[in-house]
Amino acid sequence: MNCLDNYVGLIGCSPSEPLSGLYINDYPGMNTELLEKISSPEQASYAGLWASVQSVAYQRIRRDIQTALFKSAQAQMDQVLFQTSKQFVNQWQSVDPLPMAPEYRGTFCSINGSKYLGIRIKQLYVYNASDTIVTAVPWKIIQTQDGKELDSGVYDMAPGMNYVPINQVFYSDFDKVNILAVVDCTNLDTLRGFFVDYGWQQMDIECASRFSMLWRNGWSIFPVIAPLDYVSGTQWNSAFNQSGVYMDAQLLCSLDSFICHQKEFLLDAWAGLLCYYILWNKLASPRANYFAQGQREFTQASMQQYLVEYTDSLAIWARQLNLRGEGLCFDCEAAGLIQQGSQRP
């Protein structure tokens, strides 16, 4: 999730005007021909170099923003707030198959509290209660507000517990993360039994535990059954007597999401950093031409100037940032301005 990718455009590379309205070509010494002449064989062309520069620069600005947030306000983005449990079936229960049926079985989770929240689903737990492999079992992850399919696939379910790899962080297009993770059980026996883990119970940081009562009203996670023609909304039904499909998931405060919401204010810093890395590629280029090898001292001086502009711009952004009312990811108690640094978010 890199919302700064192509936020600043490159003439000849951007298919349409960038959202920022700014091209890197507007900066002194920056032009498309330069990128073409200094691109490496692996990058192939100016388009490859431009993609590489943005990727490397994003990792740099991401790290610097994380450092600035922690130094100014001890904010720890990308921290895991909650982790689901694997024990979603009562430990005293024995395997009691729930026969296959033309329906989706799965888990619904809903969470609010900050626009920077995301859910990292590492894997789906799916229990095949039969003694044979069921091949190509479809699964889906759906945003329930509008039925948007976030991910899908098929998996061969062996007898017993199966671990379906997902390894993605999901965000919401709305003010609340509402996600349905389901498996098509047309040919798959799962489990009866009371669903016992209501999720998000292990509060990993002190901040979240201080808000446990308030937070409890802001989330829910429970087993559901839905028709195979499920589209959106609450067409599913809660089904606490089945527990064969669950998720290994973490709730986190996403630094990438935070950067997305701040991109307009980071524009000056981001453009300066892109210029810096373009010139860095110029110095490191293996190409033997005037663009790559000429005016190296001037290039080094320009790099230093762009780096200073980047650093200064980022510092100004951090001093002016107001985190009041930003929710759980920052606001545990009486949140103040980030520059005060007197409250631990």
Quaternary structure: single chain
Topology order in helix (H) and strand (E) letters? HHEEEEEEEEEEHHEEEHHHH
CATH C-level name of the largest domain: Mainly Beta
The CATH architecture category of the largest domain equals Sandwich
Biggest β-sheet, characterized?
6 strands, antiparallel
Number of strands: 13
Shape, per Cα inertia axes: elongated
Alpha carbon gyration radius: 25 Å
> Widest sheet: strand order?
6-5-8-3-11-12
- Total number of helices: 8
Mean pLDDT: 80
Termini separation (Å)? 24 Å
Give an overview of the whole structure:
About 30% of the residues lie in helices and about 25% in strands. The chain has about 350 residues and is an alpha+beta fold. It has 2 domains: about 1-75 and about 260-345, no CATH class; about 80-255, Jelly Rolls. It has a 6-stranded antiparallel β-sheet with strand order 6-5-8-3-11-12, with no helix packed on it. Helix 2 crosses helix 6 (about 265-285).
Element layout with pairings:
Elements: H1 32-38, H2 46-73, E1 80-83, E2 97-98, E3 104-111, E4 117-128, E5 134-143, E6 148-157, E7 160-170, E8 177-184, E9 190-191, E10 202-203, H3 206-210, H4 212-216, E11 219-226, E12 237-238, E13 245-253, H5 255-262, H6 267-284, H7 290-293, H8 296-320
Antiparallel strand pairs: 1-10, 1-13, 2-9, 3-8, 3-11, 4-7, 4-13, 5-6, 5-8, 11-12
Summarize this, please?
This protein has helices spanning 32-38, 46-73, 206-210, 212-216, 255-262, 267-284, 290-293, 296-320, and strands spanning 80-83, 97-98, 104-111, 117-128, 134-143, 148-157, 160-170, 177-184, 190-191, 202-203, 219-226, 237-238, 245-253. It is of the alpha+beta class.
